[in-house]
Amino acid sequence: MKTIFLTLTLLISSFVSVFANTSDLEAPNDEKSAMLMKKVQKAEKNDWVTLKDAALFTINWNGDLEIAKQWIDKAIKIDKNALTLEVLGDYYIRTGNVEKATETYFNALEEGVTNLGKEDMERIQRKVLVYARMK
Known about the structure:
Blueprint: H1 2-19, H2 30-42, H3 48-60, H4 65-78, H5 82-94, H6 98-112, H7 118-132
C-alpha cells in the first residue's frame, strides 16, 4: 500500500511539473500580450529561442493560438530542434490533436537524443508517455 501511494504521488508530481513550464505564474493581460508581441518584433532574424518562448507562453495561457502557430513554425524554419518540436506538440495538444502531438513529441525525442539535457529529455518523455496512452 505504501508503494502504491508513493508511486501515485510521484506520478502526480511529475504530471504537474510537465505543465508548469512558464516562468511567470500570473495570467497574461493585454499589457503582457503587447510586451510579448514587441519582444518578438524586436527579436533578431535568426532568434528561434524568442519565437519558441513566445509561442510557449501563448499556448500555455490560452492566448491567440494562430499567432502561436505562426511563431513556432517560424522558429522551426530557423532551427528544427527538440525544443521547437516540443512546443509544436504542445500546440497540437491545446488544439485537441493528441495523435499529431504524440507524433511530434516522438520527433522531438529523435531530434534531441544526442544533444538534450537530462531535464529536457525527461520532460518530453513524460509527455510521450501521457499522451501516447490517450490515442
